[in-house]
Specification:
The protein is an alpha+beta fold and 183 residues long. The protein contains seven helices and six strands, in the order ααββαββββαααα. The chain folds into two domains: 2-98, no CATH class; 126-181. It has helices at 2-8, 16-26, 59-72, 110-125, 127-144, 150-168, 174-181, and strands at 35-44, 47-56, 76-79, 86-89, 101-104, 107-109. β5 (101-104) and β6 form a beta hairpin. α5 packs antiparallel against α6.
């Protein structure tokens, strides 16, 4: 476990050098057993296929082999920061949270929970986002009640995003931003 924690608990995929350094640090500490590799021919409807075969003397050897195969193929084992369980992260996205269901009604995953929690924290800590969110809710309610067309709501959304960016860049004072976003 310490080997996998050190190698995989980062904000990006490890470099080849990081994998080498970590492997060298834990060589002899990680008991991996042994593995034998061979080949066999499997007959299929389309013809024979030559396949690699592996035989492991222990579960540790299998897990060790699979860990390095994952790293080689850019699939990274990561520990979920919500539930603490390990999951395989594909090289196309990076997340500290898995997609396991944590509630069934409504269905929510660790990743959903984290996104919701992070957004709520952002609203608490950033007055610009809090004002934007309040304005968005007011205008969305107008749209849902039919007091605003879809085109008007979309136009307001673009305007609000520009205002939010101006406020974040310091071009607008908070009071001015708050007045303009409600229009």
């Amino acid at each position: 476990m310490p080997f996998a924690d050190e190698l995989c608990d980062h904000n990006s995929y490890p470099t080849t050098q990081k994998v080498i350094d970590t492997f060298q640090r834990y060589t002899g500490v990680v008991s991996s057993g042994s593995m034998c590799m061979g080949h066999t021919i499997i007959d299929t409807k389309k013809g024979p296929i030559l396949c690699e075969t592996y035989r492991f003397t222990s579960l540790g050897a299998f897990l060790y082999f699979e860990l390095f195969k994952c790293i080689e193929e850019k699939f990274m084992p990561v520990r979920c920061k919500n539930c603490g369980r390990w999951f395989i992260m594909k090289n196309t996205t990076f997340s500290h949270f898995c997609k396991r269901l944590i509630s069934s009604n409504p269905p929510k995953t660790c990743r959903d929970h984290a996104m919701s929690h992070n957004f709520k924290e952002k609203l608490k800590s950033d007055p610009i986002w809090e004002i934007y969110n309040r304005g968005y809710k007011q205008h969305y309610a107008r749209f849902m009640k039919g007091k605003m067309t879809k085109a008007e709501f979309s136009e307001w959304g673009e305007y609000a995003i520009q205002l939010r960016q101006q406020a974040a860049d310091g071009e607008l004072e908070i009071e001015e931003y708050q007045k303009l976003i409600r229009i």
